[in-house]
Model the fold of this input.
Amino acid sequence: MGLFGPKKIEVPSHPRQDPRIQGPLTVETMERVFTDCVDFAQRPVALGGDPGKTATLCYLSGMVKMERVSDYILRPMALERDLGACSQSQAVDRILAGALYNLLAVERTTADQGVFDLINGWCLLFFPECGRVLSFLVQTEEKRSISPSENEPPLKGPRDSFVESIRTNTSLLRRRVRTPALRIRELLVGRQTVTPVDIVWIDGLTNPETVAAVEQRVGEMDIDALIATGNLEEYIADDIRTPFPTLSCTERPDRFSAGIVEGRVGVLVDGLPLGWLLPAALSQFFKTPQDKSQSWLAASALTVLRYLCMVLTLFLPAVYTAAVTFHLELLPTRLALSIISAKQDVPFTTVFEVLLMLIAFEIIQEAGLRLPSSIGQTVSILGGLVVGSAAVEARIVSPAVLIAVAVAGIAGYTMPSQDFAGALRIWRFVLAVLAAVAGMFGVAAGGLLLICHLAALESFGVAYLAPFAPAEEGGRAILRRPLPWVKLREAALKTRNRRNQR
Amino acid sequence: MKRGIVSALALSLALTGCSALPYAHEIDQTVLMEVLGVDAGPGEAVAITAASAGRGGTGESPGQDPLVLSAQAGTITAACAQMQTCGEQYVFYGNVEQVLVGEAAARRGLENLLGQMARDPNLRLEANLWVVKGGEAAGPLLDAAGEGGAPGRLAALAQDAELLGGPLAKTAREVLAELLENGCALLPALERRAAEEGEGTQGEDTLAAAGYAVLRDGALLAFTQGQETLGASLLLGWGHGGLLAFSDGAGGTVTLRLTGVRTTLEPSFDGGRLAGLTVTCRLETQAAEFQGWNSRLSETGRLALEEALEARAEGAMEEALALFQELDADCLRLGARAALAAPWRKDALEEQWAAAFPTLDITLEVEGRVARG
Done:
């Protein structure tokens, strides 16, 4: 321990090996790589039933579908007499030409390719005489079936949602966006997880600069594992020093497809049942997939309601604190009198009450989220009862504070994006503390800070406050016009083709 | 980003007026004063009485009786500050919605009060101003303390005036604007009088509307009496909901409700000289109640009622105009309204109005209509 804290220990850099597996592509190399791996399996196979001509089949059990291996590879190899009659090199050529029935059969030459093929559910067939290696796709298709989205429940629309398999997800996308211009480029991310990440866009429509930027940022990710959403978001986001999300994610393929058609770039990650859409501005987080499924008037009214709820959830506890503690003149006399009546015998200051209730609200919410849904509901009910009515009856908090915090909390639930709602929750605390310190001046200063902060954010070259600012980009964020009138795509996306209908 | 935060903080500092941050007061340790009484003290002193409304209890928490505090000092601010020392609770004047001014204080002048209301961060110019005729403002406030508080009674008076065509309540902002623009203003007056039987009040005295107080140069000059109040209201185009009773000479009475008052002005000029003013008042009424009359109003009776209505209104307006001309107080803003009616004569009218008003020849034309109820 040094005088100014722990001594800095120099950690050497950790360059990535390329290729990761040294050595030739042989059975021995595979055995070395997969030492102490109980799922690594190999077996000799006699070509055409000739025990003098054997090849070696390697695979990782559990990753491959045994029936496929047996039916499409082992059975024809054993039964096809011609394979035993010719040289192994000729046998390889015949297999590649279709002697084995497997859909995908490719020749591999490097250990890297071979190892990752095994990991991805392929099996390798080594021909020792000629030194050639064939790889067959026989991966298992065990995956969760496509089910309705739980976090974005569809009211009037398709009921499928993304699953953990990236290929299934791209197929869901392809089934909606049938244009041949749809591009899906795959990159591998994570030294240990080697996770496929697909970048999706429509060629000739999406801004190529955005595509290049996404590709560059994903390509530059040199991390151990891409398992959680944060592993992706925090590496490709423009600014991570903000609680506000600058990437929009969805579980719903219809929303994802709509975003791709609008000219956004999509990102899909194997193992995560989500799709990300980039760029994402603030107005994006107020839209729901239902907006385009219902009347434009109803959708506009609901969007206005969501914006009002945002203001309410952000400012209500702060304004209540400021008005009750500093600026009584803001309150109508009757309201002030009823607040005074309600606060009689409550031992805490208003500021403390508000902060206490805000924290209690967050605790109940967190407890409800972390538990299984059946217990979570019980906790929420118990929490609501204890923190609500019992606290009021015990004169620990006044009913007015409870109402203000509860209304703010419920208003926050109207946000379609949980990430965005989380950011609002953080800022709600900040504003409440500022109100406690300086009343409405604090609230005004906090509001100003918030606007400055949002104005400073960007998402892949698009201002976060677009289309509210900058003015030249124009567009409508709050009111949804009838779809036949919306003939242009968002200007802020800088798409190659702005017109979206005749 | 950092630059943005620094400029935001600097701006918020500027918003505070670069002074201390506002003081925090716990709301449950605060008394919300709703009515302020201003009276003349000895010498130049001013006596302030402040009253809060009673507050009902919730659950096991007891309510609070109306609280009346009083203090005397050289200035309104000093008197208000003195009241802060009366108890441990914070006395808050930001909710004062009614301000009563005693007659003596009103005759001394309202400039200090209005100035204080304009400057003080708590007092609001949106508060209603009333003048207590023939007494002090403190009296009604102390009386009302035992009856549930003065704020409720005054709010009821303001609402009644709107519904029944009485003198309308005026905010301090309106009075200040009228005094600054016109030099004179009308304020609703109240009087404390013994409650008559059947008035529903429990105490001995009650507050009742008592016409208008006429202010000129910020000080009280006189009060309108009897028909002058009705006349002033009609000249202002007010009076909706007012009730006018007429007798037929045979013991029967009919009560008319004013449903519309429209008063227009038309100045007349002789060459370039202001020669006169014609005031046309159209009254719409509806028969509200018959006592001793046939419930069905005959056409002859209706015409007779219209004549009586016109005569009553004309007489009332004549009396009101005579009072204002005698006091040389154009509280009805006849000059400004005449200028609006003849904007091409605006300059000449404004130039001559002040000198001509006391002796101006004002012609009244009244047209009354009675609709069957």
Remarks:
- The first strand of chain B starts at residue 30 and ends at 40.
